[in-house]
Task: structure prediction
Amino acid sequence: MGGLTIIVPVKAAVPNVTAVRLDPVTHNLVREGVPLMINPYDRNALEFALRLKDKYGGKVITLSMAPPSGKDFLESTIGMGADEAYLITDRAFAGADTLATSYTVARSIQRLFPNFDLIVFGEETTDSSTAHMPAQVASWLSLPYVYYAVDAEVKLEDRLIVVTRYLEDEGVYETFEYRMPIIVSVYRNSNPPRDISLVRKVEAKLNNLVKTVDNNTLKLERECIGLRGGSPTIVAKIEDAKPIERKKQIFKGDPPREAAKWLLDNLTKEGVIKP
Amino acid sequence: MIKDGSLQLIGKARELASKISTDVTAIMLGHNLGDVVKEPIYYGADRVIYVDHPALAKYVPHIYSNVIVQLANKYKPEIILFAATKRGGRELAPYVANTLRTGITADCTELDVDPKTRDLDQVRPTYGGNILAHIRTPNRRPQLASVRPNVFPTPPRDTSRKGEIIAEAIESLPNINGQGLIEVKSVVKGEELPPVEKADVVVVAGRGVGSADGVKLLTELAKLLGGTIGGTKKVVDAGWLAADRQVGQTGKTIRPTLYIGVGVSGAIQHVFGMKESKIIVAINSDPNAPIFQYADYGIVGDYRDIVKELIELLKNYKK
Result:
């Protein structure tokens, strides 16, 4: 009985979401030409996967639907310890909402790695933070799924996995047992990621280890992908959000007692502390 | 007991339904539900459809999602709203939307409906919160959206309201494929201070506090304020505070009533995790620290002296 085949889908996040350009027609984020980094929470997911591989053997494969510039951050995932990395890229995939993106990711995994045991997602992305992808991919593949995983144990001979997850808003740990394959997303405050080895990353670049796959290979149905075919939601309009107005009242210098009094008086007036 | 986030959506749904002359249905899943199935009516629902089944005694995400899909296929709603809790809006809603091959918008901060097209206007802050996007699902139904708890007010409970209550059977359940949920454990921590995401008052230590002793002083202040202690990434990396108390992009996002940052410079990664606090206070010796740009009240000075005075004043304040 072999080890585990673990797929970690990762997203090329935009490092500084406050300084990006939006397409004037579709209102979508313009990702082309923007330096991309790995979504930080996907590194916790990769760590979760690598720990399982360290314990039970097998291989960890990262995969991303991204523009061609996504190659670089996929090399970083090899630097962190992934065995293989795949860039799913095609103009036809661009502008996808979460339904079309999840279709592309789900079918790519099915076609490229039909015998996978586990798909491990990050909790959410820092640039759009919907947390939709894990459940949507589970729906396309009709698989059990569980969010906010912190730990897992595998019984290889029975292909069983026991996943413990933490629900932050309820302060509750839950443990689930499923027969693999299943899909998990990893709680962002768990599995602090290991460092990226620059040597391995450079090796990945020099040896062209990131494999590129387009829709000529995947042959995904046009009506399910991209902006026009597969995305039911549209951004009808955008407007500037008003940042929360702050009072910016500053007490400068001494004496400390006066400063402390000034602060407590104001906080009492605000009603945020009570005598 | 029904969670506030769901009751708030019944209130919002009632408002939307009036604009397009339709009714509001609440759905409830579980086992031995009892009288709680009447509650949604009291908060504004016109109808409750519930599924009471032994298989729903334990929460298993794909089982719950599938039952909701079956109900949606039978009753064909135009709009489905989920409270954006970790289970509901995060875990269940996207599976339901996807299986119905329709769109979904997460964490909406406002909802409206166009009486002509009956399109749901789904407003959500995006790209770091500087832009509000109005999202629509013009060509498919139902339209799905989730809303975080406490974005809308909880409607009053009116026990004189009447409505229809329907018990629905389920045709088939998907294979659990294993035992599903096998253990539930609540976290009860003895005398420790509450977690940063749960407290109304959070005192946050930045690198400027200089040492673990500085963090101890701030913890005393946090206790006197009935709050808890948190820290920036630098403070956690230095080992002065446990990792689960880190506030910021790679830590926790908090929105307390009162945030007090002490020795916090205000790096964007930290601000990301606290900018929605109701009142922000900054104490820092550097008058040019970026944190002051986000603060309602700021004190420039040596934090030790100021915090000691605050502690002294608060001890007497209580008397």
Q: What stands out?
A: Chain B touches chain A through 96 residues (CB under 8 Å). Helices of chain B lie at 4-19, 39-42, 61-75, 86-99, 212-224, 233-237, 268-271, 303-317. The CA atoms of residues 67 and 170 of chain B lie 7 Å apart. The radius of gyration of chain B is 24 Å.
